[in-house]
Write a structure and sequence with these properties.
This protein is an alpha/beta fold. It has 2 domains: 161 residues, 3-Layer(aba) Sandwich (D-Maltodextrin-Binding Protein, domain 2), CATH 3.40.190.150; 114 residues, D-Maltodextrin-Binding Protein, domain 2 (3-Layer(aba) Sandwich), CATH 3.40.190.10. A 6-stranded mixed β-sheet has the order 2-1-3-10-4-11, sandwiched between helices. A 5-stranded mixed β-sheet has the order 7-6-8-5-9. Helix 2 links the parallel strand 1 and strand 2. Helix 6 crosses helix 11. The chain is globular and about 65 Å long. The relative contact order is 0.19. About 3% of the residues have low confidence.
Length: 314
């Protein structure tokens, strides 16, 4: 029995020493398929499948502004086989609603795939071709018009609410379970305004169904050089979003570092970078430490946005 026990022990030790990953990795996306976050996850995991030799399976767990997915990942095993492809709303969400996770303590940052501003889109029925004309139009109709978001407490919601507060406007908030259905209702005219990602809105602008009036970044973006920044009218206004990989806190550092290196490699490949830029995303691929520093820097901005917008946690 002793030789057999030794063989079994050596086999177990060998299995534990095998490099990650040894089986499929599940990547949880908090928003619906087809949106900006989902598109980035699929672009990057397609290459990770090839580079790491195991399937990276994208799963959409939608609801509560991303809280359902976040809680699921936070409670998952710390073994590198359940990852969170998150966006900045998961760090602002606890400011506006009660959630069962702590974004700063329950997750280990890995790497940000890319960043992008939001684009202010309005339905074609709105007779405004400039930001000023839109502001004047809404001011003349307080509370009569609707604006969409990708979910209550998401950065699309906070960006819109912050803009309305700065401009002194009153509109009714209509939250959706992600960007795709919000865009669908903007195109259909059920809502009049939505702060979305360029990837969601450009095609509908080109087909003449909506107009793009402004971007939320401090300056104009290369993808939309003719669309002014809100800051040109309201100095100091600037918001945006990121999408990247997180793991449950306690995941081995070796796995986090390995994946961060692979993500950085992938997003800097010319072919992948081009695919990201085509959907309005600027590739990043930073380190876990840089990722952690970024979310800490952003925290005061979103707290200020919630305060300025008068949003209170339920």
């Amino acid at each position: 029995m002793r030789p057999l026990a030794m063989v079994l022990a050596l086999g177990a030790a060998s299995a534990m020493a095998q490099p990650w990953p040894q089986r499929p990795v599940h990547v949880i996306v908090p928003f619906v398929a087809g949106g900006n976050t989902d598109s980035q996850a699929r672009i990057v995991t397609e290459r990770l499948n090839q580079l790491l030799g195991q399937p990276f399976v994208v799963e959409n767990k939608v609801g509560a502004g991303g809280a359902i997915a976040a809680e699921f990942v936070a409670k998952s095993a710390r073994d590198g086989y359940t990852l969170f492809f998150a966006a900045s709303p998961q760090f602002s969400l606890p400011l506006v609603q009660k959630v069962n996770f702590d974004p700063f303590n329950d997750f280990a940052p890995i790497s940000i795939v890319g960043t992008n501003p939001f684009v202010l889109g309005v339905h074609i029925s709105v007779p405004a071709t400039t930001l000023k004309e839109f502001v004047d139009y809404v001011k003349a109709r307080p509370g009569q018009l609707n604006y969409a978001s990708a979910g209550a407490g998401t950065t699309t919601h906070l960006t819109a609410a912050l803009f309305l507060a700065r401009a002194g406007l009153q509109m009714t908030h209509v939250p959706y379970k992600g960007g795709a259905p919000a865009v669908a209702d903007l195109v259909g005219g059920q809502v009049q305004m939505y702060f979305g990602n360029a990837s969601e809105l450009i095609q509908h602008s080109q087909s003449g169904k909506i107009r793009l009036l402004a971007v939320s970044s401090a300056k104009r973006t290369p993808q939309l050089p003719d669309v002014p920044a809100i800051a040109e009218t309201y100095p100091g206004f600037a918001t945006g979003t990121w999408n990247g990989f997180l793991a449950p806190t306690g995941t081995p550092q070796a796995i986090i570092d390995r994946l961060a290196q692979e993500v950085a490699k992938v997003v800097r490949e010319p072919a992948t970078a081009e695919r990201l830029r085509k959907i309005g995303v600027e590739p990043l691929g930073n380190t876990p430490a840089e990722f952690a520093a970024l979310v800490q820097r952003e925290a005061p901005m979103w707290r200020d946005a919630v305060k300025a917008a008068g949003i209170r946690a339920d």
